[in-house]
Specification:
binds adenosine-5'-triphosphate, four-stranded antiparallel sheet, alpha/beta, about 300 residues, antibiotic resistance, 12 helices, ABC_transporter-like_CS, disordered C terminus, six-stranded mixed sheet, 13 strands
Length: about 300
């Protein structure tokens, strides 16, 4: 296991940072860490890298304790912080040279490949660069030494769609080559193409950890019936795992997480004339976790 977090809590005075966070990331996995702004993603990442001390709980990265062995962890990590701190008057080239020296990196072929793939602008002072162009330098710096673990805090913010695709390819290549990736984001789109598993954090607490497939299977399907005459919804509402989302005279829309056969038996007795069903929409499920909509959370 590359990352282990068990019951991790960090408070900032009376402010909540993170509360009782537990998760693990296996070797060779891309793990997504999702949540709205202020949910506690960056705090968790900083704790993992030994940049904050925990109030309580246990963490290990490569089996090492971040509060005591941060330097040993950093040697094996590529970190792209959410707020990239660069020296405004220095160029990208100067930054990368500095990072390469600090890591004792002498083979610069992969750095050059990344610069080209991300069309990073290396010869202008970074304060003259757009957010996206600064982000490219951060990406090159995080990946160029092929670290065992990549910790990427909102990595594609500011990148155009083509470069987001390039980034997704780079992440997949990295894990194919044996690296492990922890990737935080507040957007499902940013992570759903690349992650194997994800955790959703909200108000400092993990509310679900699952694979994308698992989330999809657990999320409700929408089933709509039309009947030739007005019907009552009570028999549907009584079924386990069925919620009546809409009901008007001869039309009923259901949100279904339970078994389909009992539902069809109830419907058949009412002589339906039409039926449409659509699969789970991951975006809706994801937003419901952000909003904390209770009926969807019952599925976990
Ligand atoms: N150094 C700090 N001092 C005081 N409060 C802090 C500090 N760092 C984080 N917090 C608080 O901890 C909570 C979690 O913040 P964090 O930055 O981890 O969220 P996040 O999920 O990374 O959000 P974002 O997507 O906006 O970066 C917030 O309520 C924030 O105000």
């Amino acid at each position: 296991m590359i990352i282990e977090i068990d019951g991790l809590t960090r408070r900032f005075g009376t402010r909540r940072g993170v509360t009782d966070v537990s998760l693990h990331v296996d070797a060779g996995e891309v793990f997504g860490f999702l949540g709205p702004n202020g949910a506690g993603k960056s705090t968790t990442i900083r704790l993992l890298l030994g940049l904050y001390r925990p109030t309580s709980g246990r963490m290990r990265v490569f089996g090492l304790d971040p509060t005591r062995e941060a330097a040993a962890i950093h040697r094996r990590v590529g970190y792209l912080p959410g707020e990239l701190a660069l020296f405004g008057r220095l160029t990208g080239r100067e930054h990368l040279a500095h990072f390469a020296r600090a890591r004792g990196l002498t083979d610069l072929a992969f750095r050059d490949e990344l610069v080209e793939r991300f069309t990073a602008e290396l010869d202008r002072p970074v304060h003259t660069l757009s957010k996206g162009n600064r982000q490219k330098i951060g990406i090159v710096a995080a990946f160029m030494h092929r670290p065992d673990l990549l910790v990427l805090d909102e990595p594609t913010s500011g990148l155009d769609p083509l470069l987001q695709d390039e980034f997704a390819r780079l992440v997949r290549e990295s894990v194919d080559g044996g690296q492990t990736v922890l990737l935080s984001s507040h957007e499902l789109d940013e992570v759903q193409r690349v992650v194997d598993r994800l955790a959703i954090i909200r108000e400092g607490e993990i509310i679900v950890t699952d694979t994308i497939d698992g989330l999809r299977k657990a999320s409700p399907r929408t089933v709509e019936f039309h009947f030739g005459r007005p019907v009552e919804a009570a028999a549907f509402a009584a079924l386990t795992g069925v919620r009546v989302a809409e009901h008007e005279r001869d039309r009923i829309v259901l949100s279904v997480t339970g078994e389909i056969a009992p539902l069809l038996r109830v419907a058949a007795d009412l002589d339906p004339v039409d039926l449409t069903a659509r699969p789970a929409d991951l975006d809706e499920l994801f937003l419901s976790y952000y909003r904390n909509s209770p009926e969807l959370h019952d599925v976990h």
